[in-house]
Amino acid sequence: MKRSLGAILKLLVSVGLIWLFLRQIDLADVERAARTAQPIYLMAAVLLFTVSNLLGAIQWGYLLRVQDIHLPARRVVSLYFVGVFFNNFLVSNIGGDAVRVYDLSRTTGKGSQSFAATFLDRFVGLFVLILFSLVSFSVNPELWSPGIAIPMVSLVSALTGILVFGFSRRLSGWIVGMAERFAPEKVVSLLQGVRDGFIAYRTEYGVIVRVLIVASGVQLTRVGVYYAVGHGMSLDIGFDHFLIFIPLIAIVAAIPISFGGIGVRENLGAILFGRVGVDPAAALAMMFMGYLAGIIASLAGGVSFVLRRSANPEKTDA
Questions:
Q1: Are 93 and 253 a contacting pair, CB within 8 Å?
Q2: Residues 77-120: pLDDT tens digits?
């Protein structure tokens, strides 16, 4: 009952945000803006998102092997694509991570290790996104404002805190010990999983370097998805602005307050790209078409999930 109510509330948030936004612009303007997009660039956006998913599967595979989870590359790609598919259709775009952990746990029987690798996979992605935004902001200081700086500082502080917690055996051990005395068992288990996950990577310098390189490719191609759509719409926006805005939009859209980030993504996109002269209707069309490119690219995960369930309805392992 609580889950159903939460899903309904998040759907209402998405609908409400879209409704509020459309009250300020003419839907016909959005349609006209979308019609300006050249099909070749939309196809390029889908291809870029597909490439980012393949790179993401490679990144996840590196992290899994450190946790002593060894699966064929085909199976890792299948599980990753299924997770991306559910990211687009569950009530937040991190729901697919839970699906990945569940599927991998059923496949390998290593629940905590599956959680640790998937958590690190998401964490590295966030870290690289923030890094891209900070570097791009440094060469575009005119875009700084309290409304952007405060969330950025908060995110950097949170990520730094997680890093310190994860890589310091003494501090993380003390925090977990305090949690065992006062926090619910689920919270303690979560903290312990995060701690164990980070500690396993403390001396894996080669893996960390490879993961950071691949993660940079993942995030650059996903930024490229929206750049391709915007370029196809003949919007005069530099790639550096996409490097600033798309990571921020992706991070905020990951907060589980709406259905698939819908509404949050479009509103924030209109606000941020409006700072560089993009018409709100055009920004909405660009953000939504970029989202659609991601959905199309992730359909292979949905097909894989359906075929897997049809082949063996008693199991969910790939």
A1: yes
A2: 999 998 888 887 665 556 778 888 888 888 888 877 888 888 88
What is the distance in angstroms between the CA of the first residue and the CA of the last residue of the chain?
A: 30
Helix (H) or strand (E) holding 289, with range, is helix 280-311
Q: Are 270 and 285 in contact (CB under 8 A)?
A: no
Domain locations along the chain: 9-311
CA distance 41 to 46: 9
Alpha-carbon gap, residue 121 to 137, rounded angstroms: 25
Between the CA of residue 300 and those of 79, 83, 295, 318, what are the distances in Å?
11, 11, 10, 13
d(CA 69, CA 110): 8
Find how far residue 44's CA is from the centre of its chain: 20
User: What tens digit of pLDDT does each residue of 251-288 get?
Assistant: 777 666 555 566 677 778 888 888 888 888 888 889 88
